[in-house]
């Protein structure tokens, strides 16, 4: 009996993904980068071209934290972007710290 598959279909082979598997971000290490990228997509009508640097920042965060294998940017679709210095802080810690320090200085000044 076939139970939902065509009777001529005898067997199939399960293949792993081409790029391999990678762990999910259970600890939320790259959550800020991901949310920033998704917010950019929503505000730009899902035009990912306008959010490329945020996408690159998210992938960089994942690679830096061992959540995906490090690869060359050209293999990830970023051949047209500079290789160094383009991403900056990928999870927003520096930006948040900078905002806090500017708020403190404006309150004390």
Automatic annotation (TrEMBL):
Keywords: Cytoplasm, Disulfide bond. One of its GO terms (biological process) is mitochondrial respiratory chain complex IV assembly. The keyword Cell division does not apply. Residues 30-64 form the CHCH domain. The keyword Cell division does not apply. InterPro entries: CHCH (IPR010625), COX19 (IPR051383), Cys_alpha_HP_mot_SF (IPR009069). Residues 88-109 are annotated as: Disordered. It is found in: Cytoplasm. Pfam families: CHCH (PF06747). GO terms for cellular component: mitochondrial intermembrane space. PANTHER family: CYTOCHROME C OXIDASE ASSEMBLY PROTEIN COX19. Required for the assembly of mitochondrial cytochrome c oxidase. Belongs to the COX19 family. This is Cytochrome c oxidase assembly protein COX19. It comes from Botryobasidium botryosum (strain FD-172 SS1).
């Amino acid at each position: 009996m076939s139970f939902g598959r065509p009777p001529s279909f005898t067997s199939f082979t399960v293949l792993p993904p081409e790029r391999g598997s990678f762990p999910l971000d259970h600890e939320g290490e790259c959550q800020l980068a991901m949310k920033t990228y998704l917010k950019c997509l929503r505000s730009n009508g899902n035009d990912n071209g306008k959010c490329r640097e945020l996408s690159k920042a998210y992938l960089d965060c994942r690679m830096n934290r061992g959540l995906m294998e490090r690869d060359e940017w050209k293999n990830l679709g970023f051949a047209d972007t500079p290789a160094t210095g383009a991403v900056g802080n990928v999870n927003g810690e520096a930006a948040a710290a900078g905002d806090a320090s500017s708020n403190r200085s404006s309150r004390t000044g």
